[in-house]
Inverse folding.
C-alpha cells in the first residue's frame, strides 16, 4: 500500500516518470532458439546394428513422478563403427517424458552424450529418442550406458474417489520387458515402491529356477531375469500400490528473476498453477473430521504444506493467491538458512487446484559478479520450487531473467538437460521507469521434476555505462523540459499595455 | 548455450557486484536529493513574476538576489533541480521496494 501511494504521488507530481505497467512485448530478436529434434523419413526404423547384452531396468515409483533408469551393456554387432543408439517410446510417453540424461556407467569422463527426440512421423505411435555416443563404437566393442529419464502424469488413483481419511492407492502400467529397438539377450526390471504395501500386481510365469515373476523384496518387485527377447518385445503389466501422499502436479510454473543494478537487488517471483492428481473425495470435505485427524492421524493424501528452502540471504518473502495475501506462512531467514514454509488456504485433495504466487528478494552480490572484461555474469538456480518428500513435477516451466534496460550480448548456459528446453530467446519486458524496455532472457522448458532443483543457470551480459544512466537521464531531460516550458509560460505578457501618451 | 560461462563465473569470484548506494542508505539518499530537487523547483517557481504576485515573496527573492524572469534561472536553478530529482526519483523507486 505504502509503495503504491508513493508511486502515485511521484507519477502525479512528475509526469515524466512513465510507468508502463508490467506489460511485456515479444521482440523479433530470438537469438538462440534451441530446437533439438531431428527429422527423419516416415518409414524410418532403427538399423539393427546393436545388441543389448545385458539390461537392468529400474523403475522408481517412490515419488509422485516416475524415475526410470536403464542400465544397458550395448554391443556393436555391425561391421562398421556406430554412434547412434535409439530408444523407443510411445507417443503418449514421449509427451510426458523429461529430464533425459545419458552417461557411461563405467567411465564418468566419457561424454557428452546427446539425447534428442527424433521426428519422423507425427502419426506413428512409436517415437524414438536418439542417443549420440561421444565416440563411435567399434565393431564387436561394448559400452555400458546409463539412461535416466522421468515420466510425468504417470499414475491413476484406484479407487478414483475415496473418503478424506482413507489411504490412497495408485496404479501404474508398464512393460515387464524393457522396450528396446534392439534384441536384448538378458534383462530384468526392478520396480521400487514408497512402501511395502502393494496389494495388486500382474504375475507372470517364471523361467529357470524362479516359478513366478515378480519376486517381492521388501518394497521392491523384480520381474526377470528374462532370456533373449526380440526388438520391440513388450509384456504389459500393472501394479497398484499405497501412496498416502499428495500427487502434486504443477501444470505451469512462471519464474521471474529481475536484476536491478541501481538497487543492488535480484528479485524472484514464482507463479504456480498447482493440481493434485490423486484420488478425489467421495463425499464433501468435512472440516471437523479434518481438524480431528490432525491430532490422531496426521498422515493424509491431501497437500497441506510446502517447504521452500531458499538461498541464504533471501529476504522480504511474500505469498499471495488470487484473493490476496495468504497469512498461513512462515519465513525463517538467518545466516544459515532461508526457509519459506507455506500452507495452502485449504488442504488440497485429489482433483483440486491451488494457484499461488511467492516471491522474495536477495542482494545482487549473492548472484551477480563483474567480469574482468567489464561485463556481468549472473548465476541463479534454474528451479527453486518446494522440496517435498513426495516430490513435485513441473509440466511447463517458463523462466524469465529480466536484465537491466539496455543489457546486450546476452549468453546463457544451464545444466538442465538440453532435451527438456523447448525454446529460448530474448524478449522485451517493460515496467516502471523504462523507456525502451528491459532485455529479458526467456527459457521455456517442459517435464521437469524437483530433482533438477538447484541446477544452475549462468547468464553473461554487457551493460554499457550510458545504458545504466538511461533512467536518471530520461527523468532529467523530462524535468528540464518542464522547467523550460514553465519559464516560457511565465514570461508570456498577459497584461494590456497601458496606452502611451 | 555457451558452456564456458561457468569458468567466467568462477574467474569473477573476487568481484561481486556492489551497487553505488547500498540498500540501507537508498531512502536517505533519495529523500535528501528529492528535498533538494523540490526546494530548487520551488525557488524557480517563486522567481517567476506572474506565478507569484506576493510582495513579501518578491521582496525575499530580491533580497536573495534571484534574478527575476531571467534566463539565468534555468542553469542555476532548473538544471541542478532536475539532476537532483532525476537521481532522487530512481533511488526512491528502489528504496520503496521496486528495484528498477
Amino acid at each position: 500500500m505504502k509503495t503504491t501511494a508513493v508511486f502515485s504521488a511521484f507519477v502525479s507530481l512528475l509526469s515524466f516518470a512513465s510507468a508502463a505497467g508490467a506489460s511485456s512485448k515479444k521482440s523479433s530478436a530470438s537469438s538462440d532458439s534451441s530446437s533439438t529434434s531431428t527429422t527423419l523419413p516416415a518409414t524410418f526404423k532403427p538399423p539393427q546394428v546393436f545388441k543389448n547384452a545385458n539390461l537392468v531396468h529400474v523403475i522408481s515409483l517412490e515419488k509422485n513422478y516416475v524415475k526410470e533408469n536403464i542400465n544397458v551393456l550395448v554391443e556393436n554387432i555391425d561391421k562398421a563403427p556406430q554412434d547412434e543408439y535409439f530408444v523407443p517410446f510411445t507417443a503418449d510417453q514421449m509427451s510426458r517424458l523429461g529430464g533425459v540424461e545419458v552417461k557411461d556407467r563405467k567411465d564418468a569422463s566419457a561424454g557428452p552424450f546427446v539425447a534428442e527426440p527424433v521426428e519422423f512421423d507425427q502419426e506413428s505411435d512409436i517415437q524414438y529418442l536418439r542417443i549420440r555416443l561421444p565416440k563411435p563404437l567399434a565393431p564387436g566393442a561394448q559400452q555400458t550406458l546409463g539412461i535416466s529419464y522421468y515420466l510425468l502424469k504417470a499414475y491413476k488413483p484406484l479407487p478414483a474417489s475415496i473418503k478424506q481419511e482413507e489411504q490412497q492407492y495408485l496404479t501404474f502400467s508398464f512393460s515387464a520387458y524393457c522396450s528396446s529397438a534392439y534384441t536384448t539377450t538378458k534383462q530384468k526390471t526392478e520396480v521400487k515402491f514408497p512402501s511395502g504395501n502393494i496389494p495388486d500386481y500382474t504375475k507372470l510365469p517364471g523361467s529357470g529356477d524362479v516359478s513366478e515373476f515378480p519376486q517381492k523384496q521388501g518394497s521392491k518387485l523384480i520381474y526377470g531375469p528374462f532370456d533373449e527377447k526380440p526388438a520391440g518385445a513388450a509384456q504389459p503389466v500393472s501394479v497398484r500400490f499405497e501412496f498416502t501422499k499428495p500427487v502434486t502436479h504443477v501444470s505451469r510454473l512462471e519464474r521471474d528473476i529481475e536484476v536491478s543494478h541501481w538497487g543492488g537487488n535480484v528479485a524472484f517471483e514464482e507463479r504456480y498453477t498447482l493440481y493434485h492428481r490423486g484420488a478425489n473425495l467421495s463425499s464433501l470435505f468435512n472440516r471437523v473430521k479434518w481438524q480431528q485427524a490432525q491430532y490422531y492421524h496426521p498422515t493424509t493424501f491431501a497437500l497441506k504444506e510446502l517447504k521452500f528452502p531458499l538461498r541464504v540471504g533471501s529476504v522480504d518473502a511474500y505469498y499471495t493467491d488470487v484473493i490476496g495475501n495468504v497469512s498461513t506462512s512462515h519465513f525463517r531467514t538467518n545466516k544459515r538458512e532461508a526457509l519459506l514454509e507455506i500452507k495452502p488456504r485449504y488442504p488440497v485433495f485429489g482433483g483440486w487446484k491451488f494457484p499461488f504466487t511467492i516471491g522474495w528478494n536477495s542482494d545482487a552480490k549473492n548472484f551477480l559478479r563483474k567480469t574482468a572484461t567489464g561485463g556481468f555474469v549472473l548465476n541463479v538456480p534454474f528451479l527453486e520450487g518446494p522440496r517435498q518428500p513426495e516430490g513435485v513435477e513441473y509440466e511447463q516451466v517458463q523462466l524469465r531473467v529480466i536484465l537491466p534496460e539496455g543489457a546486450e550480448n546476452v549468453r546463457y548456459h544451464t545444466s538442465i538437460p538440453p532435451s527438456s528446453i523447448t525454446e529460448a530467446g530474448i524478449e522485451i519486458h517493460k515496467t516502471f521507469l523504462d523507456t525502451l524496455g528491459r532485455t529479458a532472457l526467456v527459457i521455456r522448458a517442459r517435464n521437469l521434476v524437483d530433482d533438477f532443483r538447484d541446477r544452475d543457470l549462468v547468464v553473461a551480459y554487457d551493460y554499457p555505462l550510458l545504458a545504466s544512466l538511461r533512467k536518471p537521464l530520461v527523468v532529467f531531460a523530462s524535468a528540464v523540459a518542464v522547467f523550460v516550458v514553465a519559464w516560457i509560460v511565465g514570461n508570456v505578457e498577459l497584461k494590456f499595455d497601458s496606452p502611451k501618451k | 548455450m555457451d558452456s564456458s560461462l561457468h569458468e567466467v563465473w568462477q574467474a569473477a569470484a573476487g568481484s561481486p557486484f556492489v551497487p553505488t548506494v547500498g540498500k540501507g542508505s537508498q531512502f536517505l539518499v533519495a529523500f535528501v536529493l528529492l528535498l533538494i530537487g523540490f526546494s530548487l523547483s520551488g525557488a524557480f517557481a517563486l522567481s517567476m513574476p506572474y506565478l507569484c504576485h506576493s510582495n513579501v515573496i518578491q521582496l525575499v527573492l530580491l533580497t536573495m538576489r534571484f534574478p527575476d524572469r531571467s534566463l539565468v534561472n534555468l542553469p542555476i536553478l532548473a538544471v541542478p533541480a532536475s539532476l537532483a530529482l532525476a537521481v532522487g526519483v530512481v533511488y526512491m523507486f528502489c528504496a520503496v521496494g521496486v528495484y528498477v
